[in-house]
Amino acid sequence: MRRVTSRTIMCGAAGVLAGLVTAVGVVALTQVAAAHGVTSADRDPAGLIEAAHLPPLLTVKGEPAVLRYDIYCAPPGGDPESGAPCDAGGTVYVRAGDSGPFRAVPLLLDTTASEGRYRADIPADIAGSHDGFSYYAVLRSNTSGAVSVVPAGGAAAPQRSRPLGEPALVQLGDHAFGAPARAAARVASAAWGSGDADVGLEPGPGLQPIGGSSFDVGETGTVSLLDEANHRVLRFSPGASKPVPVRVDVRGTMADLAVGSGGEMTILETVGDDGTTPLVRRFDAAGRLLGSLHLAERSASALELGPAGPVALEYPAAQWMPVAETAAGNASAGQRARGRAGRTLANGDELVVQRAGNEARIAQVGPRGVKRSWRIQSSTPLGEIQLANALGDKVVVVLRVYTDARDEFLVLLLGEKGLVTRFAIDSAGWAETAPLARFRLRGTALYALGSTPAGVFVDRYDMEVG
Amino acid sequence: MHDPSRFAVALALTALALSGCAGHRARARPSLLVDGTRAPALPEVLASLGKGAVMSRVRVLPAARLDPRGRACVEGFRHEFGVSSRTIVVERTGAFGASITFVSPHRRVVLGCDRTAQPSPSGVWCARSVGRLFDGRLHDGRVDVLCVGPTGGRVGFAWVEPTRRARWIVVAQPSGAEVEEIAAGLPVRIATRDVDSAASSATFAVAEYDSAGSEVARYGLRARVAG
Amino acid sequence: MERLSRPQALAFAAAAAATCALTAATASWAYHTRFVANNCNTNPPQFTSYFTRDGSITVALYAQREGYQWAGGCWNDNDVDDSPGDPTSDPNTGGEGPDCSGFAFKVWRESLNESDAGAYQWNKLRNVHGPYTAARFKTGDGAPNVTYGKTGLIRMDALASSTHIGLIYTANADGTDQIVEAKGEAYGTGVWTRAYRGESSYGGVRRLGWDA
User: Domain limits at B218?
Assistant: First the structure.
């Protein structure tokens, strides 16, 4: 063994000194940069161009054939915070049905409107098409020249508006709160915490509780509960006394979960890192990462397993887009080129939903257009449409009904002629979840995710299909 | 020519006047609480705090036994936090402010309302506060800075989590101190007139005392509006 | 000068590298909690006689993808959380970004004087939170703020619970809303789909005085 000489020790000490000097120098330079506001490359403020648009996915006779947008871009003068109006404009390209050339319709500023201030009036011959119309918009900042296409797939995947046709009318009247249905069974429950059988609450300092943000149910009734705060999925098998935790490499923030027939898990994050869009990750049943890809759009509100793989409802396009990695890749362009207004069912039909005021519109769309539709009217305000899914020859819809003081979920079983049955479910939403992750329909069972200050649970309601 | 006797009389009169001023300051110490009632007696072991210390009145009771304004505060949180008339409430009435404090089921959140002697434009209570408990404890005092006292000055309120050995929280005030007895294992809502509106913050000079009257902690709390 | 032997050179390099890494890591952690001290100001706001929902939404959209800071109100519009991973148990880390109520206060161009309903442009680097918590917004406290029925809320109105506030960017076809908000330390600021409108813990709030 070599002797450690004093010279070696002195060299080590000199190295410590050199390392210290270097590090202090680097940090000092960084802090000088920071003091001048240069923490990383500042975004070009002139590049902002965003648009908000509520697509008229399902229309009824007599509604005005107008498309409205709000456009946001850099105001003249270069100070984004000046509040000066943005000089914007654009063109909507619209055609009857799904084929043929698009016709250009300019967007005009409607100064009388408090929202949707840029309007395009659909030509009467297109608006009157029995098959509805498809469209996309090219929006631009007249100040900076920045351009945005909405939906981003443009002519390849335009937004789709369809007439509701001859819908079955469902009149709900006033909702009577306080009489929720009793669940057939509580199939999963966990206290808040970090123990083996607990579900975690996301850490603070924010005040609102978030945890157990999504779930799914397998064909055998196994419940998978996303415990994002503890970076795992809890698997509750029927009859088992305790759940099995499966670790998954997730971000730890609100996310949506879909579980395939082999136990493969797909998780849609709602937050991206370092300015990127959120990730969709796939894991095998043991929690090993199989792949991931970035959403094409800024965010997505829901994840489902479609016949061709997982799909996500992405915004600002407001379209369902495929989010499975494929050999051809599902990079942004690929996702956007296959965006659709509705979710594809197992039989290839599309189910399209729209909440318009105190009305919910549901349409099942086949290759030749709307096959059947429902128009659900309520005297009590309607919130979001949590679920719409086929159940044999019927459709199950779950809506939120609310006042300023109360809210519940309303479950509707719809048949050809209208309402077959209905019942209410307590909203039980103490902890926040992914926005459209409260319900799953598996076979004839409706599963509902709920929470209280004590913990989280999943209840099963058996649908009487008749 | 200087007259020693006149000088002595002047000195005596001056001393008398000064002692009168000091006495006036001592007599100006508020011994009335914001509801107009007399403050309870200071515990013997806290006598060292001096005549300027005012003892708050503290009651621990179920919400159902509060007066209507107290019940209104609890009711305002009922739907969102599941509190009920059985919820145990700590009601504090001090010289500068009054409050009620309670926790939600499973001790997830601490809730409360504040008021001063000055009626609030929005009702009896000038502030409602909510604080998330992490493993049963607050990370943030949930300060409010928009209440106004009877002379028009701001009154800030915040919660403090006392140390384990403490029995009383003493908050320095311009005219002395306000003494709060710790109760029901809940954070203690304290008041101050040291409010910085430009910074949306309030500063509290706090000391904690144990049952024997010994000081166990002393700190300044600068709390900023958040959440 | 005598050349260093191999062991001597290795000792120097290893010690230098280890020290450099350790020092930089420690200093970097210390740095990222000095965002406010190093970047933000306390300049007075600029009174604005004309302010619009468009203008405020533009400010909010620029403020996407920034950090979140409890009691905070200062950010730099570079699409990066410049103070990531602040310890969530410490509310006083001085990092980048607003919290939810600070975000609403600045985007809504409100005054520190709760009796003043005027519009004030603060600028992103002005560190200001304002006197309102989400709970105060929910009850419509302050001259600029009023409670408003949820069915009638439009863009740049807000949905507030006692623990959180988010501003409406636009409505979605399925009845959810896209909300622009400062959501939490792990989320930062951004636009997300939320179901706040239907939840009874959330109430509607409107900022008064929009010119358009």
Answer: 11-224
